[in-house]
Amino acid sequence: MTPRVVFPNKILPYLLVAPQLAITLVFFYWPASQALYQSMLKEDPFGLKSQFVWFANFAKVLSDPNYLNSIRVTAIFSVSTAAVSMIAALLLAVMADKVVRSRGLYRTLMIWPYAVAPAIAGMLWLFLFNPSIGSLAYLLRQMGIAWDPLLKGDQAMVLVVMAAAWKQISYNFLFFVAGLQAIPKTLIEAAAIDGAREMKRFWTIVFPLLAPTTFFLLVVNTVYAFFDTFGIIHAVTGGGPGKSTETLVYKVYNDGFVNLILGDSAAQSVILMIIVIALTAVQFRYVERKVHYG
């Protein structure tokens, strides 16, 4: 039976959770309630006049072809970014786990890119693949590839996915390494003695035991792709060319801060919040069923 914790003062438990509750109320619930209220208003660009229109802004947004295009772009971008960053991080973590000498040095070098700000990471990749001055773009042209992400939407999408995934690989790598260290080496050694090859040992022992880590990173990378990649897209493509890389979060910024369509922008932010909450709930409801904690 688990012992019950008794506080000497009845007010002390509430004082301990008060800072976290205050932060949650100020930085989440209050902005969310303001966004929900503003999404039902029709305002002029200067905020001088407003009219309560209920759900008219939501109907307008959901019938806008540009917004539907942003949903499609976000789906492609988020799935690609999460898949590339997690697969690359898992591969690097498995390789780094095999290193005997200078293991700490390799892991430190792999974690460093996570300290780079998203906008800086975007500019690094933009300089490398700029069609005019980029060194890697020059190599692509030498290989006969007509590389120009400033004009071709599919190439722009590839560029922002690579930049966003590169930024997140270090974070995923850190957790995958921790997960690999938690796996008992005796299980792998026993499988090797039984004649299981390296790939079979990975898929039958290592990867199933990494399921909790993989599920956690799946949720984190989904939220990252939806929200934290704004700086990368803003620095690299600005949502172009032809709105081919305009994700939902970037369209919220573009309509609200650039075009000053405040009601539509607020409605889009509410829809985006609902989408992310729904995706997270679905992941916990259905994906976590296949996760085994042991």
TrEMBL record:
Which organism was this protein described from? Neomesorhizobium albiziae
Q: Which GO terms describe its cellular component?
A: plasma membrane
**InterPro entries reported in the protein's UniProt record:** MetI-like, MetI-like_sf, UgpAE/MalFG_permease
What's the superkingdom here?
Bacteria
Compartment(s) of residence? Cell inner membrane; Cell membrane
Q: Does the keyword Coiled coil apply?
A: no
**Which residues are listed as membrane-spanning?**
12-32, 75-96, 108-128, 156-181, 202-227, 266-287
Member of which family? Belongs to the binding-protein-dependent transport system permease family.
What name does the UniProt record give this protein? sn-glycerol-3-phosphate transport system permease protein UgpA
What keywords does the record list, in alphabetical order? Cell inner membrane, Cell membrane, Membrane, Transmembrane, Transmembrane helix, Transport
Task: Sum up the protein's function in the record's words.
Answer: Part of the ABC transporter complex UgpBAEC involved in sn-glycerol-3-phosphate (G3P) import. Probably responsible for the translocation of the substrate across the membrane.
Domain ABC transmembrane type-1 intervals: 71-283
Q: What is its main location?
A: membrane
Topological relation to the membrane, as annotated: Multi-pass membrane protein
Quaternary structure, from the entry: The complex is composed of two ATP-binding proteins (UgpC), two transmembrane proteins (UgpA and UgpE) and a solute-binding protein (UgpB).
State the Pfam families in the record. Answer: BPD_transp_1
Q: Which GO terms describe its biological process?
A: transmembrane transport
